[in-house]
Amino acid sequence: MVGKYRRVWRSYGKRPGVAALGFSAAVASALVSMIAPSLVRRAVDVLAAGGDPRRALPFALGIVGVAAVSGFLLFAQRMLLVGISRHLEHELRTEAFAHLLRLPASFFSSQRVGDLLTRLSSDVQAVRMAMGPALMYVASTTTILVSAVVLMLRIDVTLTLASLSMAPAVALTAKFFGSRIYRRWNVAQEELSRFTARLQEHLVGLRVLRAFACEEQEKKTLGELNLAYFRASLRLVNVQALFFPLLQFLIGVGFVVVLGYGGYKVVARSLSLGQFVEFNLYLARLIWPMIAVGWVANLWQRGAASMARIEELFSQTPELPALPGPRPAKPAPSKALSVAFTGVRFSYPGAPGPALRGVTLTVPAGRRVAILGEVGSGKSTLLSLVPRLLTPPPGTVFVDGRDVLQWDLEELRGTVVMVPQTAFLFSATLRENICMGKPEASDQEVWEVVARAGLEPDVANLPQGLQTVVGERGVTLSGGQRQRVALARALLLQPAVLLLDDCLSAVDRSTEAKILGELPRTTLLFATHRVSVAKTADWVVILERGEVAEEGTPSQLAAAGGRWAQLLALEELEEETMEARG
């Protein structure tokens, strides 16, 4: 069990002095509290002997003093040990999130967002409870348990053995229920992950649900997931509800034994009334440790289950910053770098066939290349390999003559920037979204990229201009506006290689052509479905089923009479038809 928490023990190792003080305070608080029963015994014996009640006053004051010191030590142990657990929670969540950022895109394509949220929230909290309050009470209750038993043995050995007759039953009960709590907590967390994932999808896609009148259907789906989580939680609660009352029953049986046997000893005068009261106070001190056995076991089982779920994240292999081996010399700064694909083959896990089938393409520095193809032809896959959003086979994709796998990942993604078709914006101001990769950008730099992305008229119409909050995922902007914000974000980084994955599909043809024409003269690869826009490129590549079907300049391909010529004719026919209707 302890081994499952190996990763988080480091938080205690970083703060040995604080941990030592915290555990010392826990032990000292428990030991100080054990003084009070002895003072009570003396006061009772004084009063039972018919002496002056004032003689019991020092003992009463002593009890008050013990309570004050014990209370201060309780405060200290909580501040120190629970404080460490809060540091642990922060560090574990930060470490887990940092690890997530290093994982490849393929990992996220197979994961539910809600599951990841649950692991970084409630699972981390469960680990904190196990490594904070639970450990604190292990220290204090163990001290109470040992010292109380020793002091009880000092009063009467046989009465002590009788009072502890139920201890084996308590231990077996804790072991029996502990494993069941572990399993049921795990199931409940999985159900919570499924519910959270679906809820997140519903909230994000609420407009789509309303547009297709799917509210009732999705309400039913979410209700079923909520019910599954409720039932899993109820099964966990049922175990816990039986666990603690059973512990209290066993402890109560022990008390009955003590009252009967101890009362007999008092009547037989083998035990004074004061000693009997003192013994019962020690026994009362044992109630919390015996209940805490179950509570701590519950926390540790839940924490262990959650830690196992978190460790599943850490077991995922992150992207390598670069392959082992000597690093080529860093290229001199330039405005554009070359890109080359050499026999690139790529398959998605579980896909029936390869997405790319031996693609070979050379893009000289500063060249503008348009990539056309039907849905599923491999355009997005090809572009995603350059910045290693997908990992290519070794020796197949090169930037500036260097295998992208030999580039430092941070350096590569600062050199090659890709703008996806689906633009993601954060719930922040428009300026903050544009400056995400370069927060220190000046106003002049921001306005330059706003102009190049064709956003100036849109910004002028916003209530607060660049300081307008765009809402979650940019909900207050249109699809075309979101795409142009994403383009402006990329342009601000002044990349040596710019990749556009049909990222202007939501704007009209003339606007797209104008924006592309005003882009800086860098190496540009852009996927598009518009032939009229592709005509502005220096070189055109047509992909079909993951292979290069045609490539050349627009004029060369038009003269060849192949697929490009067919697409040109089809687009011209569409334009003539629209003009005739209009």
TrEMBL record:
Task: Tell me where in or outside the cell this protein is found.
Answer: Cell membrane
Cite the entry's keywords alphabetically: ATP-binding, Cell membrane, Membrane, Nucleotide-binding, Transmembrane, Transmembrane helix, Transport
Q: Where do the TM regions start and end?
A: 16-36, 56-76, 134-153, 159-177, 241-262, 282-300
ABC transporter domain location, by residue?
A: 339-570
GO MF assignments:
ABC-type transporter activity; ATP binding; ATP hydrolysis activity
Q: Could you tell me which CDD domains the record lists for this protein?
A: ABC_6TM_TmrB_like (cd18541)
Determine the domain of life of the protein's source.
Bacteria
- List, alphabetically, the InterPro entries matched: AAA+_ATPase (IPR003593), ABC1_TM_dom (IPR011527), ABC1_TM_sf (IPR036640), ABC_transporter-like_ATP-bd (IPR003439), ABC_transporter-like_CS (IPR017871), P-loop_NTPase (IPR027417), Type_1_exporter (IPR039421)
In the bilayer, the protein is annotated as: Multi-pass membrane protein
Give residue ranges for domain ABC transmembrane type-1: 20-302
Instruction: Provide a GO CC annotation, any one.
Output: plasma membrane
Q: Enumerate the SMART domains for this protein.
A: AAA (SM00382)
Tell me what this protein is called: ABC transporter ATP-binding protein
Organism this protein belongs to: Thermoanaerobaculum aquaticum
